[in-house]
Each structure stands twice: as C-alpha cells, then as structure tokens.
Amino acid sequence: MNKLLVHLTILAAVSLTTACSGSDEASTPDVTPPPVVPDTTMKMRGMAIDGYIVGATVFLDVNFNGIMDDGEPNSVTVNPEISGLSFELPVPSNLERCAGFVPVVVDVPVGAIDLDDPDNPITEAYQMITPPPLTALTDEDIINATPLTTVVWDSVKRELNTMDRTLN
Is the pTM of this model over 0.85? Predict the structure, then answer.
C-alpha cells in the first residue's frame, strides 16, 4: 500500500476520531464513547463473512479500543438467508457523522455458527474488523467484515504505530 496514502488515511481517521470523541486534544482523547441517545435515524447494515457467521456481536468501535464499551452501538448477527444481511446496527443521531470514520468490529464467540459448517459451532473466539471507509455513510451502504478486512486494518494500525514512533 502506498505509504503516503496510508499516512493520510491515518491522519484523517485520528482527526475525525478526536472530533467524534468530544475531545479537543489529539494527544489525550476521551476514551469513553459518547452516550447513545435513543433517536436513531441511520442504520449501518452489512455482512459478517468467514462463511456467514450467526451469533456474533457487531459494534461501532467509537474509541478505537477493539472492545465493546457501554454506549457503543451494537447488534448480533443473524442468518442472512432469512433477512438478506447478517446485521443491522442502529446508529444514534449523535454518532451519525462519525460512523464512517471508525472501525466496525465483529466479535465471534465460541458457539457462534459458521453457515459453511452449521453442524460444528465455532470452538475458538476471534474478531473481524472492517476499517473505516473514511466517508459519510448512508442507509444504502453495506459494510462487510471479513478476515481480509481485518488484515487491512491490522496493517493500517501497524503503520500508525510506526508513524507515532517516528514523530515522537
């Protein structure tokens, strides 16, 4: 991946995350997600694909810590053959402008079902992450979390760490 593009992407994500978290200081962002307000006007929809996964928790990782915190929008994946998609994540209006600039995390627990092998539930928990698209989202957008999107996100995080060490 072009290093300049990665650095610009990271810079944009960090600045927008600071705006989403409510902190004005990039060096000390607020790690507590904003409270979820009851009115939701947008829903992020998508697929959890490693085979279609049923029973995983999907959440908008507003504070970039990879853990579902109180206040972060979340839902559980369902069989896409029934609903057409495997998740629908309600996004409160106070997080709409940030939704396209933070990762979506899929926590696949022990016991979840991979529809490629439905008779053998998942025996080892894992995570899939889709990088932020870095654009405003609409109800028409489809988010797909896969092992490949997780590798891309890991690469971006490594670049961010390298850039952080270089700047300090």
Answer: no
